[in-house]
Prior knowledge:
Layout: E1 4-8, E2 15-16, H1 40-50, H2 55-59, E3 62-63, E4 68-69, H3 76-80, H4 99-102, E5 106-110, H5 115-126, E6 130-135, H6 138-145, E7 152-156, H7 164-170, E8 175-178, H8 196-217, E9 226-230, H9 243-246, H10 251-269, E10 272-278, E11 280-282, E12 302-305, E13 312-314, H11 315-327, E14 334-339, H12 353-364, E15 368-374, H13 379-394, E16 407-412, E17 415-424, E18 427-439, E19 449-456, H14 467-488
Parallel strand pairs: 5-6, 5-8, 6-7, 8-9, 9-10, 10-14, 11-13
Antiparallel strand pairs: 1-2, 1-15, 3-4, 12-14, 15-19, 16-17, 17-18, 18-19
Amino acid sequence: MNVAFLSGGGGRGFLAGDGEFGDWRDGGKLSKRGNRPRVRRANQRKRELDQNIHPFIAVAGVSIASNARRSSEILLRASSSAADVSGNESVGLQPDSKADWRSNARVAVIGATGGVGFHVINRLLSKQSQVRAVVRDVAKAKESFGDAAGSLEFVTADVTIPGEQLEKAVEDVDAVVLCVGTTAFPSKAWKNGNSPKNVDGQGVENVMSAIERVSVQSVSKKNVKKIVALSSVGVLRKTKFPFAILNLFGVLDAKLRAEKAVIQTSEKLGLDYSILRPGRLVGGPYTNIGAIRKERGDNGIVLALGDNQSGDCAREDVAAVAVESIFREEAKCKAFTVVNPADLPRKSVVEEDDEWNELFGRLERPNEVLRLEFTSLNVMKLRNWLASWSGSVLTSGALYPPLPIPVRVDPTQTGCMLTFLTVDDGKVKPLGSLNIMLRPASEDGKVRGALLVFREPMFQDKPFLGEVQILDKLKDDLARVTTANAEEA
Length: 489
C-alpha cells in the first residue's frame, strides 16, 4: 500500500491511502509524536520524502500571494541552497563534498570531563567515532571514564591559556565540540580565574584562534570541518527576566561573545557550525542532582531556531543533540535552543532515525504546523473542498465550542489564508495567519503532493487562540471525507 503521512502541531496523525484527493486509507500504529509509524518500511519512505521537501519549506517563510520569500538573516544559508519550485532538486539531508569524513569522523571534545562533555564522549564512542578528549588533567579524566578511557585519545590543554597546547588539541581532527563553561554565579569553580569571562568568552575565542592557526599551517593532516558549541538560552534576551538575573556576573555576555567568535571564524575559514542554546542543565553528572530524574529524559526534546524558548534540559539530551549536529545538514550554520518542555512526555533519549529526522527537520521548517504528504493529489478538487470547508465551518459558526476570536478566510492561488483577528477600540487588527498551501506532486514523482500549513509571522512560537481547534477539525474532516471515498471505491 502506498503510504501518506499526516502530522502537525504535536497532534495526532494517521497513515492513509486510496481516496478522492489522493491515495488514502486508515492504518498503522502511530508513534508517540503522532506523525511517524513505527515500522521500518514507513521509516524508509519518510526518509525518502524528507529529501524532497518543497524549497519554500527550506527557507521557512513565504508569502503565497506574491511568491516572495521573506528576508531572515538566520535562514539565508538555508534559502541559498533551496531547490527550484519544480522540485527537480531536493532540500534537506543531502550529501555534500564533505560527506566522506562523517563516516569515520575524528572528533575533539573540549571540556570532556564536564557534565555535558562526559555524555558527548560516551555517545561518540557508541557511534564508533574516533574521539579525542581534551582535558586539563589526564589522570583525573582517565579515572572518570573508567574502562572507556582505553578507547580515547587524551590531550592536555586549558582553554584559558592560548598557544601550542590548544593548537595540538584541535589539529588533525574533523570536528570540534566545545563543552566548556563555568557557573553563572561565583563558586569554587571560579578558582584560579575561571570566571565566565575567561572560560566561556575568552576561552572559546582562544580555541577558535587555535583552529584558525592550525588550518593555515596544516598541509598533510586533517583540518576541522565542523564546530559544535554549547551556549545558553537567553543570550539574546539578557535584559529580560529571568535572564537579567542569570547575567548578573556576565555569563550570557561571555556566551554571546563566544557565539560571535565561532560564527566569525567559521565564516572566515568556510567551516560548518552549530550553536546549541540549551535550557537550564539538569541531571547527572555532577550538578543539579535534585533534578537527576531528568537525566534519562522524562520529557521530550524540542529544537527551535533563535532564542525564544525557556526551560530545563537534561545534559544527556544536550549531548545527544550535540553529537547529532555534527552529522546533520539541517543543523548546518544554525543557532538553536534545546529544551525539555514540561508538557511533552517522552520515555527515553531519542534513538530512532525517524525521531531525529523530525526533531532536526523543524530547523528547516520552523513555522510549519501541519504537513500532509501523499502519493497523488488532485489539487483542484482539494482546493475547492478547502474553499467550501473554510466557508462553511469557520465562518458559519459550525465549530463547537465556538472559536475564541474571529477568523477571516482569504483565498490564495495555492490554497487559503486564515487570519486571526482582534478588535481594539472598534478597530479590527490582524494577529497573524495560518497559510494553507497545496503543493502538487512533480511529474517525475520525486516530490510528493502535499497540504502544508505555515504559521505567520515568522517565529510565532505559540499557537493562536483557536488554532489547535481549527487544525484538529481540518484533519478530522479530511479523514472522514477521504475514508468515505476510499470505502466507496
